Amino acid sequence: MRNKSFYAVILCLVIGSTTVFGEIKTNASLELKTVSESNIYLGKTDEQSTTITSFIPGLNFLATGGQSKVGIDYAAEILNYSLSASTNNATNQSINVLLDFTFPVGLSLKLMDGYKDTSDAPSSEFVKRIKRTQNNLSGDIGYKFGRVWSASVLFSQINHAYSQDEYKAIFDRTESESGLVVYYGFSPKTSVLLEYDSGVIAYDKASNLNDSTYSNVKLGLKGKLTPKTAGILKIGSQSRKYDVQAEKDASTSILGLTSITEFSKMTSLKLSADRNFMESTFSSNLNYLATSITVELGQKIGKKVSVSVNSRYEMDDYDTAVLLDEATGAAAVTGVLTKRSDTNTLSGLGVKYSISEWLTANLGYTTKGRSSNFNSFNYTDTLTNVSIKAIF
């Protein structure tokens, strides 16, 4: 694995942290979960249901000292399907690492690495389960100039690797980005920011001609957005240029929002929104513009029960028109030139009951779907889950 050296460094830091950090917490967990799904393959017709039983062991490590911390989270998900078990059964794994250091001289360093080996669908466009790995590495090197000014150098790299040869040429790629953000604290708890990023998307196979570069300019706010809301808001523009297919060059407005509103100790609202280009494999389109909003309302009921209600709405718009066979709702060699447009929706309800400090039970219901003017891509799906989780 290409991250062996990175995790070796992390292991050394973990071993050394017993003397550097004042507080160390470790725990193990095991979750047993059963899911009933109505449309496992997310097809428009011939919906097939299944029951999925999963075993989810986990390990967590957190060392803190002053304003610095080191954290490692590992989880495995062993999935057993009642339908076509020989092809659907899978084992997913993930590991997340956080290094967060704040130094007395005004310098800060944050590194995050998230690795997953999964069979989950890669995007809202391509919803087929595919065995793949994905590694997200990001960093933030910050420096504070006096009382109100600060700046950070940002970098990230996302690597996508697929197991099956038929998908390697289509999806295998590395996305690299670097940037600079400057903050001005106009109040003790809120800063205005200006950010510039440049990125490269490079596909592994020379036969894939979708390589591109892009640049972002963003203006935003970070910290207290309202008296009860904290988060970060960025609004800007992106210009994207393709190495080979220059006629596909594009630009658009972009948006990023992550916030949480604490109405009380018992009630909170999480809100996120995003607008950006996504990589596409649909016909001659190289990308689609995804605009989404996600809302989650959390409510505690007494000391043991918490309820969450969530909803997500996403619009995916394609720029290149494709011939649509109106009879089948699919792309074809003859038909009406049409730009594809999808609407993806998801709604869910979850209930958590704390049996004790170390044992919780969960019950959830989710419904999701896609509606497209290329209606062969339409689907609806419902999932009901029940689980119990122990932390040791």
What are the defining features of this structure?
392 residues, mainly beta, Porin, 18-stranded antiparallel barrel, 3-stranded antiparallel β-sheet, 3 helices, 21 strands, globular
Offer a quick outline of the entry.
The chain is mainly β. It is built from 3 helices and 21 strands.
Q: Overview of this structure, please?
A:
By secondary structure, this protein is mainly β. The protein has one domain: Porin, CATH 2.40.160. It is 7% helix and 67% strand. The protein contains 3 helices and 21 strands. The strands form 2 sheets. It has an 18-stranded antiparallel beta barrel. Strands 17-16-18 form a 3-stranded antiparallel beta sheet, with no helix packed on it. A hairpin with a 2-residue loop joins strand 10 and strand 11. The model has no long low-confidence stretch (mean pLDDT 94).
Shape: globular
Structural class from helices and strands?
A: mainly beta
Find the count of extended strands (DSSP E, 2+ residues): 21
- Which sequence of SSEs, written as H and E, runs from N to C? HEEEHEEEEHEEEEEEEEEEEEEE
What is the name of the CATH architecture? Beta Barrel
Please give the structural blueprint.
Layout: H1 4-20, E1 23-37, E2 50-65, E3 68-81, H2 85-88, E4 90-102, E5 107-118, E6 132-145, E7 149-162, H3 165-171, E8 173-187, E9 190-203, E10 212-226, E11 229-242, E12 250-262, E13 267-279, E14 287-301, E15 305-318, E16 322-325, E17 330-331, E18 336-338, E19 341-354, E20 359-372, E21 379-391
Antiparallel strand pairs: 1-2, 1-21, 2-3, 3-4, 4-5, 5-6, 6-7, 7-8, 8-9, 9-10, 10-11, 11-12, 12-13, 13-14, 14-15, 15-19, 16-17, 16-18, 19-20, 20-21
